[in-house]
Amino acid sequence: MKWYMSAGLITVLCLGLMCSLSGVSSRAQAAPAEEKITVLNPLGTPPPITLKPMAPRLDTLEGKTIYFVNDGYIGSDNVLYEMIDWFKANYPNTNALYKRKGGGGFESEDPELWAEIEKEGDAVIIGMGH
Amino acid sequence: MRIPSIALVLSEFYEQEKEKAYNEGMPNVRTQWVLGPTWAKTREQIRKDVINGVNPISGRPVMQEIVEKLTMPLSEEDAKTGEIKRTKGPLTFTDTEENLRQMFLEKRYTDFLPIVLPTEERVAEMLKGTSRDSDEVIGKMSPTNTGGYFDYWTFTVKDVAVNAVMAGCKPEYLPLLLAVASTGKEAISVSDNGFVGALVINGEIRDEIGLNYDVAAVGPYAHANTTIGRAWSLIAINLGNCGKVGTTYMGTIGNPMNLINIIIAENEEKSPYPPFSVRRGFQKGESVVTLFEGWGILSAANWGANRWGAEMDYPQIMKDITAQQGSLFGTCFVLSPPIANFVKQRFNTIEELEAFLAPAPAFGGGFAKMKPKPAAEGEEPAADAPPAAKKTMPKGKMPGFGGSSIPIIVTGGSNNNYWSAGGMRPGQSVLIDEWR
Q1: Do B43 and A59 touch (CB under 8 A)?
Q2: How far apart are alpha carbons B36 and B26 in whole angstroms?
Q3: What does the alpha-carbon distance between residue B304 and residue B323 come to, in Å, rounded to a whole number?
Q4: Which chain B residues are closer than 8 Å to A42 by Cβ?
Q5: Residues B353-365: tens digit of each pLDDT
Q6: Residue whose C-alpha is closest to residue B10's, from B55, B40, B73, B67
Q7: What ipTM describes this predicted complex?
Q8: In this complex, which of B67, B140, B162 lies closest to A61 when CB atoms are compared?
Q9: Do residue A47 and residue B28 have CB atoms under 8 angstroms apart?
Q10: Which end of chain A, N or C, is less surrounded by CB atoms within 10 Å?
């Protein structure tokens, strides 16, 4: 008997808890299963996108200067050193330059380096971030 | 830069970077996908996996693709300019309750738990919790606290109210949620670290809305604590585009605390120290919420320093735990009143305790930048302080801003000597009354 009383009490308490879970009363909202209701879109508003054209590509890599920029994430140097070695072996007339980006963290900008690359370089490969 | 560029990115980030490229207006940007992680590998391993390896997405040789991406002419679409307008979509949805629940689930508007559907009536009822204009734009949020990687989405008072309804909040909780949302601080960061957010709440609002700050204070054991914490995450998901696995969420392991975050109403009445908000320059009794970010908190028993014995030197244990934490977030202590009283017997003030703990220097980047700079007596906050801080910081010196990386909060019951610690760093403190 005691067990049944406890089980009944727990059931009542659970039902009470479920009913109180919703902070805003749902009594007025109870709708039959097939009745349609209207709800609000919960999203924020994203900003517009400004399309940016990509830079024209190179017609050849012969005689060009390619910057390999380490963004500062641990181990990026080794990936880029290996790529430079590959270019030296496969494109000996391409000038492959290694640079370590400044500016603090790996997400930060390095305007001085960007200006140098734009002036002196023909292409840039940046990595690696993980 | 107006020269051909290629970013090297791990293929695990494919979805994220495609979305990022689209949002940045270069949907076809030429990215080179490689097998990762690459760090911790020898050069020989890198040569094998990356240089002589294949793009895991296309299956083609990595170096061959790099050469092609530098030399293959652009398509018409690659050179397009103009603007793509985006909206949140339809303002309302009409369907049966069952279908709407399924749609919210499929569109990832939820945290995967059942929600209260945000009908006009429920949202109108929620908006009774504030005198603010429901259409007022009150903030912007992105999945990274720096805002530099993902775009910011903007939102209104009503948008916050919609998410508060979904979380099961009561109207009287809305001012607190508006104060939190106004900071733009996301509860769910994109970081692979798996960060978690925390709110420390002080002042009269604790009793006004029934926040629990006694036994079981830090956990889902009171309606206000639970639903407010859940609402902050839903706000992040829906108003800041956070928490989408593969794009705006990359927590390597994930973090279960992201569901309701860490909500800490301080037990000011049983704390031997001034409330946390008072130590930040607010008046005692003022309703204030302070936003934290970090790794989360765990029982102090998780640290080897907490050796259990008949006699305990809690300040020394705190010092040992502090020494084990890195400088990224410093160390946050959440002490139960008995532990705080132990500490008080040896250190009369928090400042003395902090000097003893000798924390690592605070990290200078990211979220730390959101901390308003200290204002001298009677001065306004610094010009570069964030707008919310400028609006809400009181005049006067702000102890604790920018200096301490060991916030100490007192909450919970007095039924035993338990306490928690973890790497959590405080950001902005906001007056809640402005959002009533």
Answers
A1: no
A2: 24
A3: 12
A4: 104, 109, 118, 159, 162-163, 166, 234, 238-239
A5: 989 997 555 443 3
A6: B55
A7: 0.82
A8: B67
A9: no
A10: N
